[in-house]
């Protein structure tokens, strides 16, 4: 059975102790401090001495008959003040021979101190109350220790198995039954877990909420710092945790220990939490599974400006996220970077509306190509989006453009920023590559060159058609003489049964080759 914080319930409060069946038998009456009955009770202690406070450590419910206080108002007042100084939870006075009614001095002193004072109108064995409360508190402490060990064991097992950060956070959220947020020291959200509607409520106005709750723990906000070797680099927050603060802090501490260990074991080669956060967000945007409007709180919490902005969706090939991150910082361009699949990296720029988005995208691409050297870095873009809801379609368009020119000879003559209008027929074929009719057409047209040993001939054919059937350029690119190229072209024509000097036949082969290449990607 899984132990959760809900199953443990909150710690006993003064109010809950007074509602116990055994206590009700004594006819309890609150005569002072009624507004402080939700104080947690850490222990129950029987004490008569006036200086009782020296024997307490805070949070105790003190039981007394007042035998040693009767007839001495100074002692009565000091008794209450001593409890207050010791931060006792409450004082319970059993009425009887010493005090037939609540003494005014004690009642007034308790009211001034804000200390709950309760009198019992019927004789009541204190031993029964002590036994009842102590047993409940012991069970609670045992359950808390069990929870701590269960969480530590489960999180350690996940780390040992190489689980990602998100899996650890999901486990913490399952135990805490509330949203869990991991941030850096600038309050930028690096990861979340919990029921999505509740998480979205927390993120909707995250920066204000985080700073407002950043000082003290209250309203269920429990924090634990993340760091090591004297340096802090983040925190984990339990948001709106419904249990008692002590147990919540225990869970947050266990979670923090696991997250620090997870980060340490990840090493320098591991994807950073910031990168994982951006990757999760951009992947969800590209997939379209989650509506863009629902992802807006996550984007804002991740540090992306979203109000009155122009969004530029880009997909870059043949580079790495670290280089793109550095370039964005160097150029002062706000944005998110995340690796997608098949060597593609998504970049979402967020620009002020008074800036020229196309010019900035072109400048970014030119700087990237300069830094990349001879590598063929492809920067594909969709038209700028002024509305957040249009961003997913823009990212998918940019990804389609990047895929359409991937690994093609045409990439040699691409503009700095490739757009949909630049991919022409190649883009259409990319969209239709999974159509069975297109697949059948490609196989039929290229049947004579689809053996593994024909790959060199396919490469020559690909370059020849991509360069507009320019034989000199094709020979140069393949580092062969023109006579050698002529011989290869002759073999290709014989194998395919076509005349490549005929425009229609060459166009048919070219379309088939584009479809074949698109199916291989």
Key terms for this structure?
single chain; about 525 residues; alpha+beta; five-stranded mixed β-sheet; four-stranded antiparallel β-sheet; about 15% strand; disordered N terminus
Using only CA atoms, what is the Rg?
36 Å
- Number of helical segments? 21
On the 0 to 100 scale, the average pLDDT is 83
Helix coverage percent of residues?
40-55%
Record the SSE blueprint.
Layout: H1 5-8, H2 14-18, H3 21-24, E1 28-32, E2 43-46, E3 60-64, H4 73-85, E4 90-94, H5 104-113, E5 117-120, H6 126-160, H7 165-176, E6 180-183, E7 189-193, H8 196-203, H9 206-212, E8 222-228, E9 231-238, H10 245-266, H11 273-287, H12 292-301, E10 309-317, H13 321-331, E11 335-339, E12 344-352, H14 357-372, E13 378-381, H15 391-405, H16 420-432, H17 436-445, H18 455-466, H19 471-477, H20 482-496, H21 503-520
Parallel strand pairs: 2-3, 3-4, 4-5
Antiparallel strand pairs: 1-5, 6-7, 6-9, 8-9, 10-12, 10-13, 11-12
Helix pairs in contact: 4-5, 6-7, 6-10, 7-10, 15-16, 16-21, 17-21, 18-20, 18-21, 19-20
Question: How is this structure best summarized?
Answer:
With 521 residues, this protein is of the alpha+beta class. It has helices at 5-8, 14-18, 21-24, 73-85, 104-113, 126-160, 165-176, 196-203, 206-212, 245-266, 273-287, 292-301, 321-331, 357-372, 391-405, 420-432, 436-445, 455-466, 471-477, 482-496, 503-520; strands at residues 28-32, 43-46, 60-64, 90-94, 117-120, 180-183, 189-193, 222-228, 231-238, 309-317, 335-339, 344-352, 378-381. The two termini are 47 Å apart.
